[in-house]
Design goal:
single chain, alpha+beta, six-stranded antiparallel β-sheet, 7 helices, 32% strand, globular
Length: 278
């Protein structure tokens, strides 16, 4: 069953309540990370926890417990949920007794949820739409301020698409809740890490797999024109791992380097299937 934890309380998902003093409600004052797993094996847990604590530090949020203590609670949430495969959400948010813009002196809340999850079929092809990127300059911090992603994802679903691709002018940045890369002339091209994209953990493993397979990697900005003319369009995320797109804004894309994409996808999926951390 879907399960949750909030500041020491374990309960079924729908039974957890969050007080008005939690600043995530009024200000989006919090950071989060998300991971997936099977059994007690949380995929790439160290990298996700590292990113969570790094982002908390950047916003001046003091984690309420050590990394080791957090990992123990995550495992307990999983065991209590009884889920065999799951999506884990972890959030640090600040808390003050009354609504005030200043966060000085705030304590930190911890929210964890575990919900049912399954890995999409590797054969699934994605439909995408493009959306102008109107976000701020903190896209590299995984905060709970997700309104642009909410609006873009809603627009995509209403259009019958799976994901929305953000662009700033002609430059493609990332998707609403994924990273995006392309294959062109045998090279993997992906936007460099900057304040305009989240440094995705699966994106980094895609790059590492490409290097290990001898596939050239170019971390540079690419354009909408390059996106539409790419040999393959690759969407990467924690929950999807790697999937390719077959259409963007109703136009057929990709399909020109399926063998190379399949090799990359298999390498990332093998890493997931053989992950042994507990």
């Amino acid at each position: 069953m879907d399960f949750a934890y909030y500041n020491g309380r374990f309960a079924e998902y729908g039974e957890i309540t969050v007080p008005l003093s939690d600043r995530a409600l009024f200000f989006g004052d919090g950071v989060y990370d998300a991971m997936v797993g099977r059994g007690e094996k949380i995929f790439l847990i160290d990298e996700h926890i590292e990113r969570l604590y790094k982002n908390a530090k950047r916003l001046g949020i003091s984690p309420p417990l050590s990394r080791e203590e957090l990992c123990r609670i995550l495992v307990e949430v999983i065991l209590r949920s009884g889920l065999s495969a799951y999506f884990l959400y972890v959030q640090f948010s600040r808390d003050k007794s009354r609504r005030t813009h200043s966060a000085a002196g705030a304590k930190t809340n911890l929210l964890i949820t575990a919900t049912d999850w399954s890995l999409p079929s590797p054969e699934k092809k994605l439909s995408l739409i493009t959306v102008r990127d109107l976000r701020y300059e903190y896209c590299d911090i995984k905060t709970v301020n997700l309104l642009p992603a909410v609006l873009a994802s809603t627009k995509a679903e209403e259009a019958g698409a799976d994901e929305a691709v953000f662009h700033r002018g002609e430059i493609v940045t990332e998707c609403a809740h994924s990273n995006i890369s392309i294959l062109k002339n045998g090279t993997l091209i992906t936007h460099p890490e900057s304040s305009h994209i989240l440094p995705g953990i699966t994106r980094r493993h895609l790059i590492d797999c490409a290097h290990s397979l001898g596939i050239p990697v170019c971390e540079r900005a690419f354009t909408l024109e390059e996106l539409f003319s790419a040999d393959e369009v690759i969407v990467s995320s924690t929950t999807k791992l790697l999937l390719s797109a077959e259409s963007i804004d109703g136009k057929t894309v990709g399909g020109g380097d399926g063998k190379r994409f399949a090799v990359l996808q298999a390498a990332v999926c093998e890493e997931f299937n053989n992950y042994t951390y507990k």
